[in-house]
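Holo prediction. Input below; ligand is magnesium ion.
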Amino acid sequence: MKAHSGEVGVFVRIRPTANFSQDIIECLPDGQTVNIHHKKDTGKPLCPRKIQRSSWSFRLEGVLQDVSQEEVYTRVCRRVVLGALDGYNGTVLCFGQTGAGKTYTMTGSTESYKQRGIIPRAIQEVFQEVQKRTEHTFSVYLSYLEIYNETLVDLLASLQSSAHPSPRSMVISEEPGRGVFIRGLSLHPVHSEEEALNLLFEGEMNRVIGSHALNRNSSRSHCIFTLHLESRSRTLSDAKYVTSKLNLVDLAGSERLGKTGSEGQMFKEAMYINKSLSFLEQAILALADRRRDHVPFRQTKLTHALKDSLGGNCNTVLVANIYGEASKTEETLSTLRFASRMKCIRTNPAVNEHMDPAAQIKKLKKDVQMLKEELSFGNTLVNRPSVPYDPLSEAQLAEIDSQVQRYLEGSLKEISIISVSQVRALFAKFKLAVHRGQEQKVNARLRQTYNLGEEDRRADTPAVKEWDTRGSTEEDEAGSFEVSHKNTQRPSSTRAKTKKSKDKQSQSKRQGEESPVSKKRSDSASKPKLNTVQSPEREQELQEPDTESQEPQESQPNGKEPFHPDSTLTKAEAFDDFKMGRGSKLNRILQENKAVLLERRSLHRQLTDKVNAVKREIDCTAATMQQYKETRGGQGRYSEPDDTLLNQLRELKALYRQRYEVLHDIKAEINYCQHLVDQCRVRLLSEFEKWYKKYSLVPEEDLETSMDNTLDQVSLPECDDNQLPPESSSSESFHNARYRMLRRRNTWSLCVTPEQRSSSSGSRQRTLPQIPPVS
Ligand code: ADP
Ligand code: MG
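Structure of the complex:
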């Protein structure tokens, strides 16, 4: 047999006898084949004799005839023993009729050392190997089990110091990682061959004593002698270890019940033996049949106890003991048939490797410590500060938190990286900050939506309400709210302001239309006056109330008055000029933003109509359902029409939610566009104001230079250096002082009436110069 070859090794051992029937049993010279030539008398008494001749040929792994005990061990068992030392489970079984030499093969003669059997030789080999394999440490345990009439007997129970476990307390169990084991069977550690042999003899003795005391035939029981091995490498990881079991099994006689003609206790014994051996055969047949995934191991104690030692991951060898006499031919045939079936079993031996969790933790801790030392050593070599590897303390975490806060606020420019754990903690804090930010945004959005809904209800218009799906029933959901176009409008306070501003605007417009303009420029004659400075809104047909308060009006409350008594150009005309000249770039951006805003608002209106259409359908369906309910009088489950309506309602609601989400996104875009438009407007107006205030009162001779300079500073970074005034500290102080004086004068001009200004300032004020367009 090859080690771990994956097939069950089957040998035939022929018991020597003086009456060996050579004409029946023929052993071929190949040493592997046995031919049985059987003559069977089928004739009836007083009838003519009818002899039936048959021949069978059995080819096995080896035929052991007239071979020594040593050769039997070497050929049959040695490789299985060595496999067990490597971590493979192994089983050697002796099978055959009573008196065929099973016990002789397995245990041998206890009196003669030379005739000792497989078990003592296996024990010897194991301890010799343990001595040789110095790179491993081995632990060896022994157990000796007898199965008699389906009862488990511990043959080494007498060696236990505590109370003997009764046979009933022994149970065959199975655990993942441990395989099959017998709970309650004593397991004896042995450290030498002698200790082990002592236990073997003790067990043999107990077997004989038991058979006498209980009046039972020792050959009527199965005996399983097991060596339990555990090995750990001395050189490699001590967390990994290997276990194996070597089962040496002396089976009970396999003779048939009819043949023995037994009765009483013997009948019972034979019945149990027949049962266990026939189940053993069934299990073997099932193991041999690759299509079968269930093997009936649990049918008897024998097969259950040998479950992980018959097929599967172990090395198995069977010795079929036969009697070489003619009278035993039927039993011989039966034994050989069993042997040839056993030969069909394929096995897949595997090492039983285990991990010791405690040892593994110990080893990993050691590894971690060693790696820390390595890192620390590496840091020292490159003059790096040592890195903390312990988990961050609460104080350190608080410090990281504070660093992240300051970094996000801008008060901390950078965070120096110390260790990987610190980086991880930083990321965690940043993530938290992002989450908080998102949460706040969502809350703000919800609040905004809620406020809008409240106002719209007050205004007696269809309102928008968030879907509250949490815990709402289908019927409740049906009563959702419609979406309003006003969704995108400002809150009421803003709208109130808008109205006021518009009144003011229209009033100003009327006044502006009536007011005379002292000087008409040909290109500005058709343009709106100061009171129409809000023209961007009018031009776009947009309502942009927030910005009105920021428009040039503030410096000219009545909105139509020229900014200077002598001025021939109103502020409105100046603003128009500014938009076409210096402010043209800003104005263009403003117009573009407004166009986008308009487009988004139009889209919002269209979508709102669609959402409201779905809402109306939902209401309609819900009402129909309610009608059904009422007509049914609230009895029983939903009927079929109800189910259809319910599905329809669900689909409509899904559509509503989908459209509502799109609507929500567009609303966010509108808000953003609105913000951009506001920003552009404020910028345009503020730059106009700056420009207007400065250049309206600057002496004519200084105007060209300083106007360009100021405008470039405000809005045109791409200025032409040639246009800048000469930079000298004296001229700068002079211009500053002059500018302050002019500002004061301008303020004064706003506080007095045109008549007062005209009388008090006289010809000191100058007219607004021609505004040069921005190139
Ligand atoms: P079994 O256990 O199968 O019932 P045993 O092993 O008890 O049979 O053998 C019955 C007798 O035959 C014993 O006295 C034993 O010494 C003897 N015997 C069996 N096989 C051999 C053998 N190969 N060589 C010498 N004696 C044998
Ligand atoms: Mg025997």
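Residues 16 and 730 are 136 Å apart (CA to CA). That is the main takeaway for now.
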